[in-house]
Amino acid sequence: MKIAIIGGTGKEGKGLAYRWAKAGHKVTIGSRQFEKAQHIAEELNMEKQGIKPVSGLQNSDAAKQAELVVVTVPFAAHVATLETIKDAVQGKIVVDVTVPLVPPKVSTVHIPAAGSAAMEAQSVLGEDTRVVSAFQNVSYEKLMDDNAQISDVLVCGNDQAAKNLVLQLIDDAGMKGFDAGALQNSIVSEGMTSVLININKKFGVHSAGIKIIGLEE
Ligand SMILES: NC(=O)c1ccc[n+]([C@@H]2O[C@H](COP(=O)([O-])OP(=O)(O)OC[C@H]3O[C@@H](n4cnc5c(N)ncnc54)[C@H](OP(=O)(O)O)[C@@H]3O)[C@@H](O)[C@H]2O)c1
Hints:
The protein is an alpha/beta fold. It is built from eight helices and eight strands; from the N terminus they run E-H-E-H-E-H-E-H-E-H-E-H-E-H-E-H.
């Protein structure tokens, strides 16, 4: 699948790019700067052997040529970034990874005016774009490490077919995804990140995650 990762030059986006390129997807890293996108794509291609080569483009061009678009930017840049890809993502699926953290209080849950970052994305992009929220609880360090025990992924969205596709991509990336209901529920996955940041601090770790249990019944 042709996947564009907007803000893919950052920590989380690069990690997801690696996982999907390793699974054979055609990944394009997006950036505000074309040269930076190309540089990070080349860096990833050199760093990880045997992956399908990753390319780099400016954000709106990356979104234009992709079948599915993933957004991994800081919350402060969320709306402004979405505006730059709005035209390019009409009719497509957008996977929003954004956590509405408000530094310096990143261990306190912040609820945006729209209800959640994902609801904000749906409102900016409009009803012709199918927004799915996922990956908020997956630490970038675990994404780059093939042997890591990695967090489960909660998937929220209002379009079942879009969620099913994202669940398949989660599987391809070597993680377990769970349909967590409507897009409105994304506030829980987004808020959980602040809870995990608290746990990281208490235990002196960087990458606490979540596991869903009780399914064997
Ligand atoms: N890091 C994690 O482990 C993790 C885990 C789960 C969820 N998340 C969420 O995923 C998102 C990305 O996290 P991250 O750690 O990857 O962030 P990051 O590395 O700080 O930033 C990601 C990219 O966003 C772009 N960006 C940064 N500031 C910007 C601005 N002011 N305006 C427009 N673009 C800007 C940059 O790309 P260019 O300069 O190339 O345009 C940057 O490389 C966040 O919402 C975060 O909460 C992160």
